[in-house]
Design goal:
Layout: H1 9-14, H2 18-29, E1 32-33, H3 34-41, H4 45-57, E2 61-65, E3 71-75, H5 77-83, H6 85-115, H7 124-159
Antiparallel strand pairs: 1-3, 2-3
C-alpha cells in the first residue's frame, strides 16, 4: 500500500501555510480556544483566528461552542486523517477482520445445524450434506485464518506507524 493522501484544492491551500500546519498539530493534542492557541504558538489572536477560519473553510477544523460561551476549535475527522493516515488503514483492516470472523462463526453454526439433522448416511442426500458440511468447515477455517491475519497486519501497522505526515516535514 502506498501512503498517498488525496487532498482537495481547499485543503491543499489551507496546508500551504506553515502557521496553519502548526495549528493543526496543536489541535491534534486537544481542542483549544483562540487564546490558548495564540499563547502556545506565540502568535497574535487575530492571526490565529484568520488561520483558523481558513482551516474551518477547508473542513480540517471545526468550531465547538461550549455552554460557558467559550469557543473551542478541534480537528475534524478529515483533519485527523491527514495527520494520521495509518488510522484509516487500521480501521479498514479491523472491520474486515471482524466481518471475516462473523462469517467464520456463522459458517460453523450452519455446519452444526446440518450435522444435527437425522438422515441416514446411506442416502444420497446424506452424502451430499456431508460433503457440503466439509466444504463449509474449510470456508470457516479460511475466514478465521483471514481474520487473524488481518488483525496481525493491523497490529503490525500500529506498532510500526510513522510520525504523522505533517510532522515529518519539520525535521531536518
Amino acid at each position: 500500500m502506498d501512503d498517498k493522501i488525496l487532498l482537495d484544492k481547499g485543503s491543499f491551500m489551507a496546508l500551504a501555510s506553515e502557521s496553519r500546519v502548526k495549528l493543526l498539530k496543536k489541535l491534534d493534542e486537544r481542542r483549544m480556544t483562540v487564546t490558548e492557541l495564540s499563547k502556545e504558538l506565540e502568535m497574535s489572536k487575530p492571526a490565529v483566528l484568520k488561520h483558523l477560519t481558513k482551516l474551518v473553510e477547508a473542513g480540517l477544523v471545526k468550531k465547538v461552542e461550549s455552554e460557558r460561551k467559550w469557543v473551542y476549535y478541534a480537528l475534524t475527522m478529515k483533519g485527523k486523517n491527514i495527520l494520521h493516515p495509518e488510522r484509516v488503514k487500521i480501521i479498514l483492516l479491523l472491520s474486515t477482520s471482524l466481518i471475516s470472523l462473523i462469517g467464520a462463526i456463522a459458517t460453523l453454526w450452519m455446519v452444526s445445524r446440518m450435522r444435527g439433522t437425522n438422515i441416514s448416511y446411506e442416502s444420497a442426500v446424506a452424502k451430499n450434506l456431508t460433503s457440503t458440511s466439509s466444504n463449509l468447515i474449510y470456508i470457516s477455517l479460511f475466514l478465521f485464518i483471514l481474520s487473524v491475519t488481518l488483525i496481525a497486519i493491523s497490529i503490525y501497522i500500529w506498532i510500526n506507524r510513522k510520525e504523522p505526515l505533517l510532522y515529518s516535514s519539520n525535521r531536518r
